[in-house]
Structure formats: structure tokens, C-alpha cells
Specification:
Helix content is 28%, strand content 17%. The protein has 5 helices and 7 strands, in the order ααβββββββααα. The protein is elongated.
């Protein structure tokens, strides 16, 4: 099982030759950011080339809480159709050729599924002879919208997301009693959505492009904003000037 902690430790262990200390040049949080960044880039490239994404990279928003959308946002909706909006923004997904990577939106029990549409296309859906169903979803300004013939309190969303931390917060920092996203600390020992082969690829890129460059920089032992490789030349003293 890969976690963010194990991947950060693996990269530090290789970079520092198994010897690390509290005054390491790069913080764990910085390495974690690079890991997230490279994972996102690899997934973007894979999906743009229509390559199969490892199943472990698919994540679930177990309970996306909804509320009725403001009337001004959906004034052209037919009577009997409810338009609901997610209470919290949806974590950003991997972009594949300009499209979001939400794979499925369904009711919590999986009995009802919703079809994808867009904010501009939704008002024309009712004229479609074969797919005029009102059970649809779309994204607008980072929020999920649902149009359906019944009121639902929450839905389940499946997708490939950019940042696993955002998904974790959505799943662990909201409740039915308090659906608004609250502050809670991300657990770095939680299973991270990355395959072993992809983890190795991410580590190699981070070590080559980031860690090796920073570690090779000279240390600033004298706290004078200069590296060890630089020689500090001081002004001549009064005795040296008199000797001249």
C-alpha cells in the first residue's frame, strides 16, 4: 500500500543516502507538493493519449451534499424539475483534452444514475427525442448541479481527481449534520491513489528535476546569504590600511 508518507520517505531516503536530519534543505510538505504535481501531470498525459488509468487512481466522493439552487441560476427549468447545487465546490479533476474527469454521478444507493450535460446545453435537452431524461448533472464555477424529478440530499461522485487531499477532506470533513466543509488535518498514512509503478515514476522525476538540483546547492553556513562555494571578501581593517 502506497501512502503519501511512504513516498515522501522513499524520496528523502534516496536523495540523502539514508541519512536525514532536521535541517534538511527540503521540507516534507514541499516534497509532498511535488509528488501531487507530478502525479497530476502523468495522469493528464495518460488520459490525453487515451491510455488506461490504473484503477487505484479512481476516487469516490462518497457523499456530496446538495441544496436547492437559486432560482436566478435556473429560471428556464420546467416545472416539476428540481435543480440542486452542491454545498461545497467539487475537487478539481484531471483535465483530459479540455474535459473534466468525472466518471459517474449516482444516488447514494446506486439505484439512480445521472447523465452528463453542460450549463449551456441543459436547456435544450428536453427537445432531444431519445435522451430527454431530466436526470442530469453538470459543473458550473466549480460546483456540481443536479437536475432531476425528485429532491435528493446527496449523491456519490466517481472521478479521477487532481489532489487526493481535497477528496479526503470532502469525505472526512463533512457530515449530514454539518455538510459545510470544516477544517481537519489530512492523514498522510491514508492510502494514496497511485499505483506502485506510477509511484516509482513520480519518485524518479522528483529526484531528478527537484531534489538533485536543490541538494547540489552549497550550504550557507555563515548565514550571510552566500553559499559555501562563495568566498566572502571583507573590507581592509585600519591596521592593514596603515601598513600599506
Amino acid at each position: 500500500m502506497v501512502t503519501l508518507n511512504t513516498q515522501v520517505y522513499d524520496i528523502k531516503n534516496i536523495a540523502y543516502g539514508g541519512i536525514t536530519s532536521d535541517d534538511a534543505k527540503v521540507s516534507d510538505r514541499q516534497i509532498a507538493y511535488w509528488i501531487k504535481q507530478q502525479r497530476s501531470m502523468i495522469l493528464t498525459q495518460m488520459m490525453s493519449r487515451k491510455l488506461r488509468v490504473p484503477s487505484v487512481c479512481t476516487e469516490y466522493l462518497n457523499c456530496v451534499f446538495l441544496k436547492p439552487a437559486d432560482v436566478s441560476e435556473c429560471c428556464e427549468v420546467d416545472s416539476g424539475v428540481y435543480v440542486l447545487k452542491s454545498i461545497n465546490p467539487i475537487p478539481r479533476t484531471i483535465q483530459r483534452n479540455g474535459r473534466d474527469s468525472i466518471l459517474a454521478v449516482e444516488s447514494l444507493d446506486g439505484a439512480k444514475t445521472f447523465s452528463e450535460t453542460t450549463d449551456t446545453r441543459r436547456k435544450w435537452n428536453k427537445y432531444n427525442k431519445y435522451t430527454s431524461s431530466n436526470q442530469r448533472w453538470y459543473l458550473k464555477n466549480g460546483y456540481l448541479y443536479i437536475s432531476c424529478d425528485i429532491l435528493v440530499d446527496a449523491v456519490k461522485v466517481t472521478g479521477v481527481f487532481e489532489d487526493a487531499e481535497d477528496v479526503w477532506h470532502m469525505n472526512h470533513c463533512t457530515t449530514a449534520e454539518d455538510p459545510f466543509l470544516s477544517e481537519c488535518e489530512y492523514d498522510w498514512d491514508f492510502p494514496y491513489p497511485i499505483s506502485l509503478s506510477m509511484a516509482e515514476q513520480v519518485a524518479a522525476i522528483v529526484l531528478q528535476k527537484r531534489m538533485n538540483v536543490i541538494i547540489s546547492l552549497p550550504n550557507d553556513e555563515t548565514n550571510n546569504a552566500k553559499g559555501d562555494g562563495e568566498v566572502s571578501v571583507s573590507a581592509p581593517t585600519q591596521q592593514q590600511q596603515q601598513a600599506k
